[in-house]
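Our working data are protein records whose layout never changes between entries. Instead of coordinates, the fold is spelled out as a row of discrete tokens. Here is such a record, shown just as it appears in the course material:
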Amino acid sequence: VPFERVGLAPHNLRPSTMLSTIALLATSASAYVLTPVGRVPSLHTSTSTNVAVQMAVKQVPHGGTLVNLFAEDKEAVIASATATVELNDRQSCDVELLCNGGFSPLTGFLTEEEYSSVVDEMKLPSGLIFSLPVVMDTSDAAIDVGSKVLLTYQGTNMGLLTVASKWAPDKPKECLECYGTASIEHPGVRMVAMERGSHYIGGTIEGLEVPVRDFPCKTPAETRAELPEDADVVAFQCRNPVHRAHYELFTRALDAPNVAEDAVVLVHPTCGPTQEEDIPGPVRHKTYEVLIEETKDTESGKKTRWAYLPYSMHMAGPREAIHHMMIRKNFGCTHFIIGRDMAGSKSSVTGEDFYGAFEAQDLAKSKADELGVQAVPSLNLVYTGEEDYVTADYAKEKGYDVKKLSGTKFRKMLRDGEDIPEWFAFKSVVDVLRAEW
């Protein structure tokens, strides 16, 4: 279907709806086990390595170089530790992306100066755009500037953090600036208020090992090596199984007017913690793998690449859209598909959205040139018996019969063993969901 037929119609931005700001954010007790083994009074120094990307991939990393923090002499790094922290799932994703360059140009967790700049200005002190703070937290008074903290996760030594900065953050301000609200009904606010400790610590990281995950996560360098030379790469972010409408959306994005010929799509699902009601990671992974197998020999499948991202969603709406674009830039992507209310969430009290439907698209388009990644607004596709998937506007213009199936109805049909129409979901994906979920 030509892009002109399925192109986006003009729309009006809807004002965001926010809950009233709560006066106080709770500060949780530390959830980390710390084992001091001595103190080092020396000042923070960087031992990380920035590796210039010498690849034919069209896109340059954010900041110009792809960071690689993995140490050569791992035993010596481990031996230098003065404390140990067991990471939670969210923190382990952050450490992995810091070490492999997914968060380039960062070489560790943000210091107080860097944190304040990102929160206040959406930039690093250098002036480089960076939309969400990447921070490590603690409530342990024994950890201070100069501490060398071994970061472990489920039996894996992931890295060593040399603490250069420690401070008590203004959490309500962070939430208001980054999430647009301080309501505890927002999952990102709830994480900051109830999961993070009283203080943040920043400094460089020396990478050690990578944990085994349900999703085999390629590094930015590995992903770039599998992308075509000198071609546009359009990234598609998701955290749920891919159904027919999603597949049509990201494959047709290659026809967007700002995407060059011979482009490919990189489907890049997140595999870290998401929202409580999301489908478990192992099940999602299986749905992706069977879909890859089912579509690999089709024309669309031949233009599609897949990789998995160890990232934990903040549901931060517009700011998170920029964050995703920056990460995918480091993975070699030149374009990024922005859907309605991307990375948004609803209040569990009022049911209202925290962000307007097009706020993320609007911010992404306004920052695209500065970031070096172009936004591709997602198409509002519907299924019709007359012409398969077309835009809602086109279907309305033609008077087509639009078929609908809600998520609630779909889940009920799954549980009841009813047949799922193949215009809605791929049979291979349905089979996995029935067997595993």
Remarks:
- The chain is about 30% helix and 15% strand.
- Residues 1-55 have pLDDT under 50 and may be disordered.
- The longest helix spans residues 281-295.
- The first strand starts at residue 49 and ends at 51.
